[in-house]
Design a protein that fits this description.
Length: 498
Amino acid sequence: MTVRTRIAPSPTGDPHVGTAYIALFNLAFARQHGGQFILRIEDTDRARSTPESEQMILDSLRWLGLEWDEGPDVGGEHGPYRQSERGDIYAEHAQRLIDDGHAFHCFCSSERLDELRKEQMANKQTPGYDGHCLHLPKAEVEGRLAAGEEHVVRMKIPTEGTCRVEDMLRDPIEIDWSQVDMQVLVKGDGMPTYHLANVVDDHLMGITHVIRGEEWINSAPKHLLLYKYFGWEAPTLCHMPLLRNPDKSKLSKRKNPTSIIYYQRMGYMAEALLNYLGRMGWSMPDEREKFSREEMFANFDIQRVSLGGPIFDQEKLSWLNGLWIREELSPEAFADRVKEWALNRDYLMPIVPLIQPRVETFSDVMPLAGFFLSGMPQIDEAAFEHKSLERDDVRRILQYALWQLEATRHWDKEHIFPGLSGLSKAMDFKIRDFLFPLFIAIAGTSSTVSVIESMAILGPDLSRARVRHALNLLGGPSKKEAKRWEKEFRGLQAALEG
């Protein structure tokens, strides 16, 4: 048997360090066994998936040195490798489940399902579908389908007994079928959900080992049941521990920068970041902290993975990155890396038109462009003092702007400015006053080039991180404020969209 592992990210946002973490362990396991590593794009969420996000995923994983043997950009005999291009395959397999009596059409409205969930929550029951459409007469189903009535396809779930989940790192896990919902397999728009597409693709692509995050443990019974329904042998499962913040909570961008591109723009070495991810729940036989990708692969044993919940600590990463810089780079290599990082022509050219009209001597360049070549600006609360804005105004502007920027999928000035401009109008601030806190957050000063064009050049990850840094400096919203602000922000967005 040839070992085949895979990573299957969704192109719906910034490439996550958690994706790289799981990709690294899949690649290490495949290389340890002389196998193959596949990259598949799970883009069935048509509303949120973007080509830009897919390209960022490919670029950032390659920057880290995580190369795949098959994928959307390199091809392979098991393609296509984008789920959006495999619609006919999913439709065929969904119909097979229906024909074999393992799935059914559900015509329940979202309103009915919402009421059902509220009632179950009130009665302290496990929320889940109640089987309302499970036994509809065949003639009725055919008539409603012929009439074009909206529907989804759900899988049938046993009502009694337990599912035994075998895992490479854990004792067998038993989950009662009563705790497993009748999962939607095909959405109302005809696109498959993750659960159907994941199982079908893993089988057809010959995946032998599914190494994924432990958040998928509760979905394992559905997946194993689908393999049984299709009459296929299930792959070996391995659920990796989740990355944690220093406070032990699940790694999230609200407490820790999570985008790979953020760490690239901040000037971390790819080798150091990959080294650090390799230490997340795993260790070398000799316990040394600094090691290369090749050293990890040569010594890899997945049984050395600890389930204790690895802590992703930026300070520790920075310390490790410093070791790599000092111990692995000659002065010549150091200069080359700095040039490659920020002094390369591709990055500098968009900056030049912004600063050149303001430059009288070349010594003016660094004061004007320095913030493009740095991490977090050196700012304090006094920098945000403004004649027309109170401190709480500044905090609200930064928080609302951050939410708006997090919702901005196409990152260029043509998309950034309309969103912020509309928000400033809805919040009843002059655009000049509204943008002031963003100038400070992004550039450290208001006496600089356009903040909108600056954000477009810096990219979404570093721009959002700087706004988040400024907000934390001033004090983010309390729980009470956050609830009120989120409600107000949703109202403003609704008004803008209406």
